[in-house]
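Example record used in the benchmark description.
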Amino acid sequence: MLKIIKPTKHLDDRGFFSELYNRSRYEEFGIFDEFVQDNHSLSDAAYTIRGLHFQYPDFAQSKLVRCGRGAIFDVAVDIRAGSPTFGKWEGHKLSPENGVQLYVPVGFAHGFMSLEPHSEILYKCSNYYAPNSQGIVRWDSCGINWPTFSDIILSEKDKIAPKLENFNSPFVYGVNS
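Model output (structure tokens):
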């Protein structure tokens, strides 16, 4: 299940300190993933959409996402066949100011829209990137209420991704996700 996490910020006259990941604390939230890779993404322009991405089994990944600079609208879509929430999405604004993190488990497609220029996204992954295992669902086929539908920037592969209605999911609710 998706989880929203807001680490504590300790503020003083110098700025703040925040513990972004502590395995034992995250286990208290029900997150038992062993994260093996950290990624850092920069979107130069506002309204850049990246996603909706996932990796096929045996390379499926869960992700723990946060925004280090700027702001993003971060989205996850349930793509688990047989799930009572198949095709449903959840989206949250992530920014350094709000400190919110989104945990995206295996079986969900993930994407985001930059809301400000020079937005930086940092995320932990529970499996290594496997380029031949990457899957995509088209960004505008899941009924997501994106902050805008005009002036968006997409990669070529995201533009031609299959729609959710034509997608045959490799994830089965309760079996491999």
